[in-house]
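=== RUN LOG ===
request id: a7f3
mode: sequence -> structure
chains: 1
length: 375
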Amino acid sequence: MIVFNVPPTVGRELDYIKEAVEKHKICGDGEFTKRCSAWFEKMTGTKKCLLTTSCTHATELAALLADIKEGDEVIMPSYTFVSTANAFVLRGAVPVFVDIRPDTMNIDENLIEAAVTEKTKAIVPVHYAGVACEMDRIMQIAEKHKLFVIEDAAQGVMAYYKGKMLGTIGDFGCYSFHETKNYSMGEGGALLIQDEAFVENAEILREKGTNRSKYYRGQIDKYTWVNYGSSYLPSELNAAYLLAQLDMAKEVNEDRLRSWQLYYEQLSVLQDTGKIELPFIPEGCTHNAHMFYIKTKDIEERSSLIDYLKEKGIMAVFHYIPLHSSEAGRKFGRFFGEDVYTTKESERLLRLPMYYGLEEEKVSYITETLKNFYR
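=== RESULT ===
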């Protein structure tokens, strides 16, 4: 069976974990955490990167820093993972879902402004498959209406919009290092902060409401409880695992891009003959090969194709069920405007195996199997 995902490993992970253990420092914010954070700050130019236990927690921190409160509204796509909405629902806010663009599966930037009300507090663009949303337009709307922009860049590490790394364009950016992502620490994430004014409060919230970060830097002689907060620090063991991959980030990225390009070239004939649709990368966007998906005619054809691929030893999977159609989505949020594309396009999308180290022969076998299905 060709599995859908293999968590990335580059060979140095166990060495780094062993080093952390031998230094008797395996809780959060040790050397490996700091090295990971410094890597992102250097790579992205962001003011501050704070590793977290998940992208979910990174988004929750962003919601706290943006002072999202009960009754506030937050605009986002419905085609996303539940964490995008949960971070704000936990604060008592209402997710306002707008339709997506069928070409990129990202939020339709032309529908956002009409959804803005006096209660709107933030826009949350989700960079699906590591392909950027139209951030220039989104930032214009945010500036006009004085809204926060919190980028859900869970899938966007090493992807760019007009030369800027995803997660660094809005006020806050949220990364994921789950085992399904391009770079992994098993479970983990990061919050990127662009305005230095938010950094101290972010450190306090992340450190259980204490000013321990300032204590560790020698800025105060003892730390104490100064605000509400929680424990968002990942273990040093997780950070050590991640750092090994960041050391080889370029190689990992190039490997995935090779597989992506191979898929695209070998499946173009099916797109040219109208059998399937392939991913679209807008001008100015540099993607990171987070996933390779195709779009079938409809949900019935997709189901048949999934079964066919499984029979041939290939695991292919669909993705999100739109949040607005779920029980919790109906309870906590609302859809603004008409669902023209969100449901229809979600029912056509099928993700093919994609991971670091995916062999060329396997990609070729998968594409030939797809061609046989459509013959």
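=== NOTES ===
Residues 43 and 165 are 9 Å apart (CA to CA).
The longest strand covers residues 48-52.
=== END ===
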